[in-house]
């Protein structure tokens, strides 16, 4: 009998429902095509809208227990948060803080200029840009240690702390060397410019102690991973080089907040945030989540691009395939990746972010149909 995998689903705010509906359509086609048995738990509503609709008491339904997160083989989540509610909500959107409690230290965010997508960078064609932002996901500015003093007064003071640990630096940088070595989630192994497997370290050493530790750790580990080309640049310079010579990059590892910001910029570099898939991965758990937010400016109109969610779900299957040694799951990811390229290259069905007039649903359906037709 086929191995059954439990996949926990969380809906989120804004466009979350519409992109997840299309993601599930594609997962169903993948199940059919590869003989997989995926048990989808939920998807449960979570997020800012849920808080508001439930008298600001909780952001998730009672049946969504913490245990479900630990029991699931993998998780997918839609974007959560609405701009008019930022800072007004009393707590978290889920029963656990997924990134820290599930120890999901690696946020993998590929940036690839795919066929049929027009670059915002003059003269770049598909294949010229193909790098991964590898964002450390549990430390840095988002540890949430700090607070306010003299709130509301003339001398009001806000403090945030930046934490970076040796263990945190080591594990993400090792992950980066292995990612560059494997070529996972890339169109082609190595940097497009010269084919070299390269791990770039981008941070602000010389300025903060945490980044000094990050860079020192990188230099130490680079000596043990000499098959991978070493490269380092300050994070401010990297934002310049990423635009000027994107083809030089293969895998770029960076502390948490820089990765958050640079991956949105990379959304633009690859043509749309609607193409930006991502997973939050640890050694035991993983959740798929598009790089972008809830897109309130287009929510409810049925025109968002579901490819970001579909690619994220595919990456999640690949992670699970490695964990369980199930080649079908890895093949399923490669198929999703190829089908997205095929649909983009044909250019018949496109959402407005890619210059088309089709709906979220039409694009999701065309991908699911193409999955069912894979030889
Ligand atoms: P956003 O990422 O939601 O949107 C930025 C731009 O990208 C918008 O123009 C939007 O229309 C476009 N876009 C995003 N996804 C798209 C898609 N799939 N197809 C087509 N276009 C797409 O950023 P924002 O407006 O700054 O944030 C909105 C809310 O999302 C905020 O409340 C923020 O806190 C939250 N947010 C949540 C997450 C998360 O849950 N992981 C991440 C980022 C932001």
Largest β sheet strand count, sense and barrel closure = 10 strands, mixed
CATH superfamily of the largest domain: Isopropylmalate Dehydrogenase
Q: Write down the CATH topology of the largest domain.
A: Isopropylmalate Dehydrogenase
CATH architecture descriptor text of the largest domain: 3-Layer(aba) Sandwich
Strand content: 15-25%
- Give the radius of gyration: 20 Å
Shape: globular
Indicate the CATH class of the largest domain: Alpha Beta
Structural class by sheet pairing and helices = alpha/beta
Kindly give the count of domains.
2
Question: Can you list the strand order of the major beta sheet?
Answer: 2-1-3-12-11-4-5-10-8-9
Count every helix, treating DSSP H or I runs of 4 or more residues as helices. Answer: 11
Uncertain residue segments: none
Order of helices and strands: EHEHHEHEEEEHEHEHEHEEHHH
Distance between the termini: 24 Å
Q: What small molecules does the structure contain?
A: nicotinamide-adenine-dinucleotide
- Report helical residue fraction: 25-40%
The overall pLDDT average reads 96
Find the count of extended strands (DSSP E, 2+ residues).
Answer: 12
Overview of this protein structure:
This protein has 375 residues and is α/β, with parallel strands linked by helices. It has 2 domains: 1-112 and 276-375, 3-Layer(aba) Sandwich (Isopropylmalate Dehydrogenase), CATH 3.40.718.10; 118-269, 3-Layer(aba) Sandwich (Isopropylmalate Dehydrogenase), CATH 3.40.718. The protein is 38% helix and 17% strand. It has 11 helices and 12 strands. The protein has helices spanning 16-34, 48-53, 66-71, 98-101, 166-182, 209-224, 235-244, 256-269, 307-324, 327-346, 360-372, and strands at 4-10, 37-44, 74-77, 106-112, 130-136, 146-149, 157-160, 198-203, 229-234, 251-254, 279-281, 286-288. The strands form 2 sheets. It has a 10-stranded mixed beta sheet with strand order 2-1-3-12-11-4-5-10-8-9, sandwiched between helices. Strands 6-7 form a two-stranded antiparallel ribbon. A hairpin with a 7-residue loop joins strand 6 and strand 7 (157-160). Helix 1 (16-34) packs across helix 9, helix 1 runs parallel beside helix 11 and helix 7 (235-244) runs parallel beside helix 8. It is globular and about 55 Å long. The chain starts with a strand and ends with a helix. The site of nicotinamide-adenine-dinucleotide has 23 residues, from loops.
């Amino acid at each position: 009998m086929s191995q059954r995998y439990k996949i926990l689903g969380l809906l989120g705010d804004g466009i979350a429902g519409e992109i997840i509906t299309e993601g599930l359509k594609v997962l169903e086609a993948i199940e059919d095509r590869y003989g997989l048995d995926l048990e989808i738990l939920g998807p449960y509503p979570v997020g800012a809208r849920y808080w508001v609709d439930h008298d600001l008491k909780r952001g998730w339904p009672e049946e969504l227990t913490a245990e479900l997160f630990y029991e699931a083989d993998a998780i997918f989540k839609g974007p959560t948060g609405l701009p008019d509610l930022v800072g007004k909500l009393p707590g978290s959107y889920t029963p656990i803080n997924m990134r820290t409690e599930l120890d999901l230290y690696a946020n993998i965010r590929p940036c690839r200029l795919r066929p049929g997508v027009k670059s915002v960078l003059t003269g770049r064609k598909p294949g010229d840009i193909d790098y991964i932002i590898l964002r450390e996901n549990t430390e840095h500015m988002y540890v949430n240690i700090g607070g306010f003093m003299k709130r509301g007064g003339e001398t009001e003071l806000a403090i945030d702390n930046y934490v970076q640990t040796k263990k945190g630096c080591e594990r993400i940088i090792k992950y980066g060397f292995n990612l560059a070595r494997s070529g996972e989630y890339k169109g082609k192994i190595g940097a497009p410019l010269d084919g070299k497997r390269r791990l770039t370290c981008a941070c602000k050493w010389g300025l903060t102690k945490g980044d000094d530790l990050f860079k020192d750790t990188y230099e130490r580990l680079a000596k043990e991973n000499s098959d991978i080309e070493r490269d380092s640049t300050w994070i401010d310079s990297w934002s310049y080089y990423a635009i000027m010579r994107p083809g030089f990059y293969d895998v770029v590892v960076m502390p948490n907040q820089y990765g958050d910001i640079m991956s949105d910029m990379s959304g633009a570099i690859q043509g749309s945030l609607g193409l930006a898939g991502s997973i939050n991965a640890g050694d035991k758990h993983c959740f798929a989540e598009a790089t972008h937010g809830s897109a309130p400016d287009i929510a409810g109109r049925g025109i968002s691009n579901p490819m970001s969610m579909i690619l994220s779900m595919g990456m999640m299957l690949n992670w699970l395939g490695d964990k369980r040694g199930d080649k079908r799951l890895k093949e399923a990811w490669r198929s999703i990746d190829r089908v997205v390229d095929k649909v983009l290259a044909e250019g018949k069905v496109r959402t407005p972010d890619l210059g088309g007039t089709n709906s979220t649903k039409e694009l999701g359906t065309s991908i699911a149909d193409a999955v069912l037709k894979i030889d």
